[in-house]
């Protein structure tokens, strides 16, 4: 029997105990005893293990039996009391056993990675990870109690049968050649990836409803995103909002004064253990920011947490099982490039994107990290000059060529900087319908030779319904540049389809390149909880390759734009002509005409003037 039933019994007894004084006395005695039982049940339920459901139920039954026997022993005349025995049938027992079912286990982790860039800028990456050992999509498993996992997102996963969801909002462009590769890449603007369960009958309708719901949750116009393949405000999703732990650094005005910022929410199923017998759900919220000298207005190459975020760290999140700050010191082994204070003896190594990196670790769950001032303000002071430009193993560029407003050509350049390894890449192009692709002009070249793709999938567009979808599997030779070109024709839009300031142009989304890139060092395939969060987002199955996703720049394309001032000019001219013509016609119709008599000679006019003075009749 659940502890809540003791309260229900008290209510029942109080309802039947109105009337006789003797009955009231018996009711008071039984109520007092039941309160003692309720205290015992609450104490036992808080001390016993949650997995021992049978023992908890037996303890509750024994306690209630003890209460009944105690009350009957102390009151001999209780036989006159006409009470109804409460018996538990099998259905009630099953319900009570469910009430004692242990709640799904969940945990929350947070970390901040600070990486000094070769350009003198600072890259800060926040990651907040929530793991919940439950399965929303299991039949008959209805989740109604949420602790750390956001309830709004959990209901979305259950209602729309979402298997995996990735959504990002990005302002600015990531400069790969100057900053290297980000931990979790994202394209400029908004991006939404969704995997549905096989049980979904109508994917298009499900997608439409899901985007409308997500638009309300994240305050974004996601419902205007067209689906290309049917095969924030994220701070509210954190357990304690922006008031504890690393979230205290997320002050809006400072983040949006940066040259690049990207926030994303990733939800996916993961394994609870090594055997992967039971699934769990992972919610990963990320925020990536790049602070540069010019935007921040600093004259010296000196960074600190207070200068970047206008505050320091004073404590870890109380609900976080892990709260750490990592500072990348791989390029600064002897301290010749920059100076980091306060120093820490704790170091950690991790293989990130095929490169072994070394980090200084600050554990916020330990009191020694904050020192005597109970505050952590990391200070990074540069000593040397800017480093050389990086050469990532895989990166891409894209631009539009041609002249005029009728036709054009899209060029996509994919760089493989590996000295001796060739590997395939999957190129995904999503082009709006108003750029009509000439697919017969598609050409792929590597080292001035034709490079025939191993696989091509093309889905033509439908005007005002869906965009073009082009997927290709291309083999990249070692140390090469592969160019993909395709011609297009600009379509004429209706005058109501042009956005404000149409002469600025129309943005075309980034291309997506996915590949298993050969690693320069041996990858660690045994991921455990001891590894940093940023090194485990894309788990690897072999030691020689790692997964990478690259986004190109968005395109800005000009379309034939009508002269939107011409209707205004026509209206003004027409109104002027109508006003002049109608005014003249109205004047002719409404004016009163009088006969103009001939004027008298000068002699008569002088005579009439004299006659008027004398008061005699005038001459005619």
Automatic annotation (TrEMBL):
Polar residues: compositionally biased ranges: 52-62
GO terms (BP aspect): attachment of GPI anchor to protein
One of the record's GO cellular component terms: GPI-anchor transamidase complex
Domain of life of the source: Eukaryota
A Pfam family reported for this protein in Swiss-Prot or TrEMBL: Gpi16
Annotated region (Disordered), positions in chain: 48-87
Protein name in UniProt: GPI transamidase component PIG-T
Organism of derivation: Triplophysa tibetana
Upper lineage: Eukaryota, Metazoa, Chordata, Craniata, Vertebrata
């Amino acid at each position: 029997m659940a502890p809540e039933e003791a309260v229900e019994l008290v209510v029942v007894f109080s309802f039947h105990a109105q009337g006789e004084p003797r009955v009231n006395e018996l009711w008071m005695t039984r109520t007092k005893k039941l309160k003692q039982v309720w205290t015992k049940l609450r104490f036992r339920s808080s001390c016993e293990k949650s997995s021992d459901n049978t023992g908890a139920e037996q303890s509750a039954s024994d306690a209630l039996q003890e209460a009944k026997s105690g009350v009957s022993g102390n009151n001999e005349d209780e036989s006159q009391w006409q009470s109804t025995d409460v018996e538990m049938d099998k259905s009630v027992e099953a319900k009570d056993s469910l009430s004692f079912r242990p709640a799904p286990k969940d945990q929350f982790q947070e970390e901040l990675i600070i990486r000094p860039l070769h350009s003198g800028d600072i890259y800060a990456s926040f990651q907040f990870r929530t793991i919940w050992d439950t399965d929303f999509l299991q039949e008959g498993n209805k989740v109604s109690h949420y602790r750390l996992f956001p309830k709004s997102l959990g209901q979305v996963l259950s209602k729309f049968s979402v298997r995996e969801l990735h959504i990002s909002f990005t302002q600015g462009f990531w400069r790969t050649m100057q900053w290297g590769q980000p931990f979790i890449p994202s394209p400029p603007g908004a991006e939404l990836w969704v995997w549905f369960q096989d049980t979904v009958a109508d994917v298009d309708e499900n997608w439409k409803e899901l985007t409308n719901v997500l638009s309300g949750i994240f305050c974004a116009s996601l419902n205007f995103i067209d689906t290309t393949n049917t095969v924030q405000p994220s701070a509210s999703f954190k357990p304690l909002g922006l008031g504890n732990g690393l979230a205290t650094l997320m002050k809006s005005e400072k983040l949006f004064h940066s040259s690049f910022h990207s926030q994303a929410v990733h939800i996916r199923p993961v394994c609870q253990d090594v055997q992967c017998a039971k699934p769990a759900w992972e919610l990963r919220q990320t925020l990536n920011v790049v602070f540069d000298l010019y935007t921040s207005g600093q004259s010296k190459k000196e960074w600190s947490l207070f200068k970047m975020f206008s505050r320091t760290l004073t404590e870890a999140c109380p609900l976080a099982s892990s709260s750490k700050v990592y500072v990348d010191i791989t390029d600064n082994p002897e301290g010749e490039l920059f100076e980091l204070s306060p120093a820490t003896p704790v170091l950690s190594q991790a293989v990130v994107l095929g490169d072994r990196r070394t980090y200084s670790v600050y554990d916020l769950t330990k009191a020694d990290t904050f020192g005597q001032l109970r505050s952590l303000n990391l200070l990074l002071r540069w000593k040397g000059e800017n480093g050389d430009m990086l050469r990532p193993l895989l990166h891409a560029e894209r631009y539009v060529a041609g002249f005029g407003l009728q036709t054009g050509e899209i060029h996509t350049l994919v760089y493989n900087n590996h000295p001796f390894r060739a590997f395939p890449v999957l190129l995904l192009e999503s082009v709006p319908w108003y750029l009509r692709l000439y697919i017969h002009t598609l050409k792929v070249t590597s080292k001035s030779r034709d490079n025939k793709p191993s696989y091509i999938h093309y889905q033509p567009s439908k005007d005002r319904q869906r965009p073009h979808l082009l997927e290709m599997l291309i083999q990249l030779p070692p140390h090469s540049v592969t160019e993909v070109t395709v011609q297009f024709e600009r379509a004429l839009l209706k005058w109501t389809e042009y956005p404000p300031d149409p002469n600025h142009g129309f943005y075309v989304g980034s291309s997506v390149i996915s590949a298993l890139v050969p690693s320069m060092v041996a990858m660690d395939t045994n991921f455990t909880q001891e590894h940093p969060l940023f090194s485990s987002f894309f788990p690897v199955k072999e030691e020689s390759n790692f997964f990478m996703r690259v986004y190109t720049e968005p395109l800005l394309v000009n379309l034939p734009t009508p002269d939107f001032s011409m209707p205004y000019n026509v209206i003004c001219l027409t109104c002027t002509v109508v006003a002049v013509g109608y005014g003249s016609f109205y004047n002719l119709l409404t004016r009163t005409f009088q006969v103009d008599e001939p004027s008298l000679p000068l002699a008569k006019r002088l005579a009439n003037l004299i006659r008027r003075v004398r008061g005699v009749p005038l001459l005619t």
